[in-house]
Design a protein that fits this description.
Elements lengths: L1 H14 L5 H11 L5 H10 L3 H39 L17 H15 L3 E2 L5 E3 H4 L19 E5 L2 E5 L4 H10 L4 E10 L11 E11 L4 H16 L5 E8 L2 E10 L16 E10 L1 H6 L8 E8 H9 L12 H4 L8
Parallel strand pairs: 1-5
Antiparallel strand pairs: 2-4, 3-4, 5-6, 6-10, 7-8, 8-9, 9-10
Helix pairs in contact: 1-4, 2-4, 3-4, 5-10
This protein binds phenylalanine.
């Protein structure tokens, strides 16, 4: 009997108390979908007598209203929970998205390699400030005031302090001075660091770059020691059989001074674009520490002698990886950076 059924379901709905979003959903499935109870009672209603229809029509409509209201109330209580359940849906058996590992910057890789080679020869690593005074960047290194050699390196001056210029260091040679002032010979150190020069940025020049300075001071240090040390360094870095040659040059802080070339790493000396057909590429400046520099740092130049050298890390890196544009080193383009060794620790 329809009337009986309505009564029974009315009771059931009145007693219904949702305690989760799942209860609400089950309620909907039971009463409100197209094959649910409400619809089926309306179907049954079609076949009752006219007399019954008059009474039951109202009752059935009230029942439908009750079912819908109960559903809406329960939905507003647990709707948020339902949304949360929705969000969790998805295939939990799919593999997760891997975290991308960072990679080492090519300049860091090469700096590390250079440092390792010299460490094995007993060189320690020393560092100094990037903001330097005139004394450490120029005067102690035998650049007299107003001397045109100061123009060899275009300087970013910051301010004057007690009549002295404060500037961004133009080379790591300033660290030599700090090291020698602070200690007693023998010195055997390499000094990696960033340096600055007031130059227009292009593929071949930048306003900052990196250098590694080397200094060896002791009794009886000779030019032969300098040559042998740098020859060994080049064999380690570029492989056995790499040739070196020294061309006379000038630096205020070394006498005699030289620039060192190596046989071209690309064409092995045959001549190519990189070495402009000469078979040689320049990689560093070097020389015997000028006695004036030793004296400026409080070291007896009669007793001690030494050699120094300085190289640009960018240059060494370019030769190793054939990077043609210096700007790539500082633009943080992941497409470029991700081509180098991945950092695992
Ligand atoms: N400081 C020099 C430069 O920046 C390089 C150099 C270092 C040369 C040590 C000789 C000795 O060009």
């Amino acid at each position: 009997m329809l009337q009986e059924k309505i009564k029974q379901f009315t009771q059931e709905i009145e007693q219904f108390k949702a305690s989760s979003a799942a209860d609400v959903e089950n309620f909907r499935l039971k009463f409100l979908v197209s094959k649910g109870i409400v619809k089926s009672l309306f179907e049954e209603f079609k076949s009752v007598s006219n007399e019954e229809k008059r009474v039951l029509g109202k009752v059935l409509n009230e029942f439908k209203q009750l079912a819908e209201n109960t559903f809406q109330e329960a939905l507003s209580a647990f709707g948020k929970e339902k949304a949360a359940i929705k969000r969790q849906e998805g295939d939990l058996t799919l593999p997760g998205e891997g975290l991308q590992l960072g990679s080492r910057h090519p300049l860091s890789l090469v700096r590390k390699e250079i440092v390792e080679i010299f460490k094995k020869l007993g060189f320690i690593v020393a560092e100094g400030p990037e903001i330097e005074d005139d004394w450490h960047n120029f005067s102690a290194l035998n650049f007299p005031p107003e001397h045109p050699a100061r123009d060899m390196q275009d300087t970013f001056f910051i301010k004057k302090q007690d009549g002295n210029d404060i500037a961004l260091r133009t080379h790591t040679s300033s660290v030599q001075v700090r090291l020698m002032e602070a200690g007693k010979p023998p010195f055997r150190a390499i000094m990696p660091g960033r340096v600055y020069r007031n130059e227009a940025i292009s593929a071949r020049a930048h306003c900052f770059f990196h250098q590694v300075e080397g200094l060896y001071v002791d009794e009886n240090v000779s030019f032969a020691d300098l040559k042998q040390t740098l020859f060994h360094f080049v064999q380690e870095l570029y492989g056995e059989g790499t040739k070196v040659r020294f061309r006379p040059s000038y630096f205020p802080f070394t006498e005699p001074s030289a620039e060192m070339d190596i046989s071209c790493t690309i064409c092995k000396g045959a001549g190519c674009n990189l070495c402009k057909g000469s078979g040689w590429v320049e990689i560093l400046g070097c020389g015997m520490v000028d006695p004036n520099v030793l004296e400026n740092c409080g070291i007896d130049s009669k007793k001690y002698s030494g050699f120094a050298f300085g190289m640009g890390i960018e240059r060494i890196t370019n030769l190793k990886y054939e990077i043609k544009d210096l700007r790539l080193f500082s633009e943080n383009d992941v497409r470029f950076l991700s081509q180098f060794e991945t950092e695992l620790i």
